[in-house]
Amino acid sequence: MKIILSTLIIPFLSFGQNIFSVDYSSQADLKVYVVNYLSQADLAVYKVDYLSQSSGNEGRWYFVDYASQADKKIYFVDYASQADLKIFFVNYSSQSGWKNNNKKHLLY
C-alpha cells in the first residue's frame, strides 16, 4: 500500500527546474528577461551542471537538450516589459533564490 501511495503522490510533490530555451515566444511557457542588476530581478538563477541539482523552486536551473525533457520552456525577450519573469544569473548556488515571491507560482 505504501508503494502505491508513494508512486502516486511523489511525482506531484517533486518538481525541478529543468529548462529548455525555445526559439519562438509562441512555444514558451514563460517569457524571461535577463536584467543587469540583482536588485532588478524577480529571481536569482544559478545554472547547475547536473540534472539532480535542479530540484526545488529555488532558482537552480538545469538547461536540458530537448523540449520534451523540460519542466518549463522559456523564451528570452528583448525588453523587460515583454517578460513574465525577470532573472539575474548569479555565480554561486547559494546566491540563487526568489527576490519577488509573488512570481514564484510561475515555475510550479
Overview in brief:
The chain is built from one helix and seven strands, in the order H-E-E-E-E-E-E-E.
Characterization of this structure:
The protein has 108 residues and is α/β, with parallel strands linked by helices. It is 11% helix and 28% strand. The chain contains one helix and seven strands. The chain has one helix at 2-13; strands at 18-21, 30-34, 43-47, 60-63, 72-76, 85-89, 97-98. It has a six-stranded parallel barrel with strand order 1-4-3-6-2-5. The chain is globular. The relative contact order is 0.30. Mean pLDDT is 88; it is low at 1-14.
Kindly provide the radius of gyration, computed on alpha-carbon positions and rounded to a whole number of angstroms.
15 Å
Major sheet: order of its strands? 1-4-3-6-2-5
Structural class: alpha/beta
- What is the number of helical segments per DSSP (H or I, 4+ residues)? 1
Oligomer: single chain
